[in-house]
Amino acid sequence: MSGQLIVGVNPSNVVQNCEVTAAGHLKMDIASSGGGAISANVDVTGNSIGLATSANQSTGNSSLSTVASNTTSLAAAVSGNELQVDVITSALPSGAATESTLGNALGELQTMDASLSSIQSNVATSSLQSTANGILTDAEAHLGTIDTSTATSSTTLTGISAKLPATLGQKAMSAALAVSIASDQSAVPVSSAGANVTASSESATPGAGVTTNSTAADMNGFQHVAIFGSTTNTTGDQFVVQFSNDNSTFYTQQNLFVSIQTSTGAFGINIDNVAARYVRVSQPNTTGGSRALTIITSKK
What is the helix, strand, coil percentage profile of the chain, to 5? Predict the structure, then answer.
């Protein structure tokens, strides 16, 4: 632009020259333009200050379009004021707390807080502790009395224990406790248990005129007796039953009959609820010859 004169009209319609820079560029006073539109053709050939070009603006427009598209997709994931997120993978372990479980935990904590408040309102006071201490003191005194009584009882029990048999089970009279029946004790039923006991099994061969007596059964502790066997004396000499209290003097019982089977010589009698101490049978031999007898006595 060297050698050329540039003029213009100022606001007072006076023509004057326009100033240029040292490089020959036109100076423009935007501040005094009054804020109106400014129209000017600017030569940006040889741009060295990085002014935006059409190519650069196209790139920016493309980037802005991409941002607008992504922003539209992001807006679809917003519900109200919350961003909806699908968790595909998570660093949380299996069974981690959810909003529901955390809500339950909050409820439990609130219950605990209420309970703690209730406990706090019922905490022992100094007055209550004094009352409790008094009760404990009385209890301690009673326990001391009980302890003394227990020691006395222990001494007494030791004395009693010394009088007891050392072991359980049947003992001889000298090692057993003395037991007596009350003077007004009613009748005590007694039963004997156990199998039949064979008191005797004996054989005899009485000669003519000899009477055979069986060994007497001692009925002490027994209630029933059976005397049976066989004899070759079946001609009419009958057996008789005899009772004794001393196993010395015997008395014949006429009401008790011992049957004899004449064809075989078998005989026997069963007596229940015997009150006599000793029981036996007796048979005379009036046949004029020797006879044979087998006598068995059982009792229970």
Answer: 30, 20, 50
Token pair of 175, please? Answer: 């090692």
- Of the candidates 216, 212, 223, 222, which has an alpha carbon nearest to the alpha carbon of residue 200? 216
Chain segment 163-200, per-residue pLDDT in tens: 777 788 888 887 787 788 888 988 887 665 555 566 67
Q: Taking residues 224-245, report their average pLDDT.
A: 93
Helix (H, G, I), strand (E, B) or coil at 154: helix
**CB neighbours of 159 closer than 8 A, spacing ≥ 6?**
none
CA pair distance 133, 139, nearest whole angstrom: 10
Any bridge partners for residue 295, and if so which? 202, 229
Within the chain, strands assigned E span 7-9, 15-17, 78-79, 82-83, 197-204, 212-213, 217-218, 225-231, 240-244, 251-253, 259-260, 266-271, 278-283, 293-299
61-65 mean pLDDT: 83
Task: Specify whether the CB–CB gap between 198 and 295 falls below 8 A.
Answer: no
- Residues near 217 by beta carbon (within 8 Å), at least 6 away in sequence: 199, 200, 225, 227, 278, 279, 280, 297, 299
User: Could you tell me the pTM of the whole model?
Assistant: 0.38
| Structure tokens, 95 | 């069974």
Mean pLDDT, rounded, of the chain: 81
Question: What number is the average pLDDT over the span 44-63?
Answer: 69
CB 292 within 8 A of CB 229: no
Residue with tokens 């100094």: 126
Q: In the structure encoding, which two tokens stand for residue 218, read together? A: 């001692």
Q: Which residues contact 199 (CB under 8 A, 6 or more apart)?
A: 215, 217, 218, 297, 298, 299
DSSP state of 125: P
